[in-house]
Amino acid sequence: MDNCSMAMPAATSNEHKLYLKKMQSRQMKIKLLQLFIFVGFFALWETAARLKWIDAFIFSQPSRIFTAFAAMVANGSIFMHIGVTLGETAAGFIFSTVVGTLAAILLWWNPFVEKVVAPYLVILNSLPKTALAPIIIVWIGNNIYSVIFTAIITSIIVTIISVTAGFFEVSKDKIKLIRTLGGTKKQIMKMVVLPASIPTVVSALKINVGLSLVGVMVGEFLVAKAGLGYLIMYGSQVFKMDWVMLSIIILCVMAWLLYRIVVLLEKKLSFMGTGK
Questions:
Q1: From CA 129, how far away is CA 218, in angstroms rounded?
Q2: Strand, coil or helix: what is 235?
Q3: Which residues have CB under 8 Å from 72's CB, separation 6+?
Q4: I need a surface site. Which of 2, 75, 129, 170 has the fewest CB within 10 A?
C-alpha cells in the first residue's frame, strides 16, 4: 500500500513533465514557423526583385530598404520621424483612454443620459474619421494638434462604447449585495464595477493602440511636416518607394511594440488583482 501511494505522485509528476515538454516543443515549433515565414517573405521579395519578377523601382526590395534605413540613421532623420509619430500616437492614446473611461463612468452613473446619447455614439463610431479630417484641419489648423485630435476622435468613441458596455455587464447580484449592506454608488463603482471591468478596459486599450496609430496616419497624410505618415506621403509623391516601404515596416514594428506594452500592463493588472 505504501509503495503504491509513493509511486502515484512520481507517475503523475512524469506525466506532468511530459505535458510541459510537449507544450514547450509546440511553442518552439510556433516560433520557428513564425521566423521562417518572416525570413521567407523578405527572401522571396529580394529574390523577385533581383530576378526582375517585380519592378524594384515600384515595389522596392529589402536590400534597398536597408540601405535607405542606414542612410537615415546616419543623418538622424529616421529617429525624428519615429519620435514625432510615436509622440502623437501616445498623446492620442492616453487622452482617448483616460477621457473615454471617465465618460463611460459618467454614463454608467446616469443610465438616463446613457440611453439618450447611445444612438449618437453609434453614429459617430460608424462615421469614417477620414471624412472629418479636412474639417479638423480647418477648425484647428495645419499643425500637430490636428494630427493628435484626429487620433483622439478615431479611438475615443470605441473606448466609451466598449467600457460602458463592460460596466453594465457587471454582476447585478454583487451590486445588490453592496446596496443591501448600505453601500453608496461611489463604493459600488470603486469596489465592484471597476475591478470587474479591468478585462474590458484592457481590451479597450488593445484596440486603442491600433486605432490611435491609424488616426495619426490619417492626420499625418493630410497636414504633417514630419512623422512616418509624412514620410510615406512624400516618398510616394517623389517615387522614393524605399522610404515608403521602410516607413510601413517601422509602423508594423511600432504597432507590435505598443501592443506588447499593453499586454505587459494587462499581466501586471491581473497580478495585482490576485493580490499577490
A1: 9
A2: helix
A3: 78, 246
A4: 2
Note the pLDDT tens digit of each residue in 154-164.
889 888 998 88
Whether the Cβ atoms of residue 68 and residue 243 lie closer than 8 Å to each other: yes
Residues in the chain: 276
C-alpha distance from residue 197 to each of 133, 183, 191, 194, 252 (Å) = 32, 19, 11, 5, 29
**Where are the domains positioned within the chain?**
2-54, 60-273
Question: Would you state the pLDDT for residue 155?
Answer: 87
Euclidean distance between CA atoms 148 and 87, whole angstroms: 9
Contact 70, 216 (CB under 8 A): no
Residue for grid cell 496616419: 217
pLDDT score at 11:
47
pTM of the model: 0.79
CATH topology of domain 60-273: MetI-like fold (1.10.3720)
Q: What is the pLDDT of residues 169-211, one digit of tens each?
A: 877 777 777 777 777 777 778 887 788 778 888 888 888 888 8
Query: What are the CA-CA distances from residue 163 to residues 18, 22, 96, 261, 268 (Å)?
Result: 42, 38, 12, 20, 19
Distance of CA 217 to the CA centre of its chain: 14
Measured distance CA(36)–CA(104) in Å, rounded: 44
